[in-house]
Specification:
The protein has helices at residues 4-11, 21-32, 37-47, 51-60, 80-84, 87-98, 140-152; strands spanning 72-77, 104-105, 111-116, 128-130, 133-135. The protein has 153 residues and is an alpha+beta fold. Strand 4 and strand 5 (133-135) form a beta hairpin. The structure holds FE2/S2 (inorganic) cluster. The site of FE2/S2 (inorganic) cluster has 12 residues, from helix 5.
């Protein structure tokens, strides 16, 4: 449970208007790695915007997540080009190495493993994104090296 004051500290950075909604939600996302339900409730009270509208934004914008995500997000492109160049093998190996199923988050909250559709870099297939950074022509072992380095940072 997050203290209300933590949300207030973020909300106070912005003008109290509906136009600030997205920026505040992005800050929630950065701070907690997702948009907590209590944060939505508080934002609704302070900005006087219906919770349903905030939830709609939370589901519309891909950069926002309404469920807890890991500190690091690993996305495996499973579009056609990447599929043909070995994305399923990368995905399986990452599931094994991280001990989490696709679209799941590790118990320690470090990693979320996701499958995504074509990310528009087919020439670099197979593509994996680690914290929104593109890595092309990858293998699972290379992705694991990148992940390990991130964890040490
Ligand atoms: S299919 Fe993976 S980048 Fe296009």
């Amino acid at each position: 449970m997050v203290e209300v004051s933590v949300f207030d500290r973020i909300i106070e950075r912005y003008e109290r208007s509906e136009e600030s909604l997205l920026a505040i939600l992005q800050d929630f996302q950065r701070e907690f790695h997702y948009v907590p339900e209590e944060g939505i409730r508080r934002l609704s009270e302070v900005l006087r915007v219906p919770e349903s509208k905030i939830y709609a934004m939370g589901t519309f914008y891909k950069a926002l997540s309404l469920t807890p995500r890991g500190r690091h997000v690993v996305k495996v492109c499973t579009g056609t080009a990447c599929h043909l160049k070995g994305a399923p093998q990368i995905l399986e190996a990452l599931e094994r190495e991280l001990g989490v199923k696709r679209n799941g988050t590790t118990e320690d909250g470090e990693y979320t493993l996701e499958c995504v559709n074509c990310v528009g870099a087919c020439a670099m297939a197979p593509v994996t994104l680690v914290d929104e950074e593109y890595h092309g022509q990858t293998r699972a072992s290379k992705v694991m090296d990148i992940i390990r380095k991130r964890t040490e940072e």
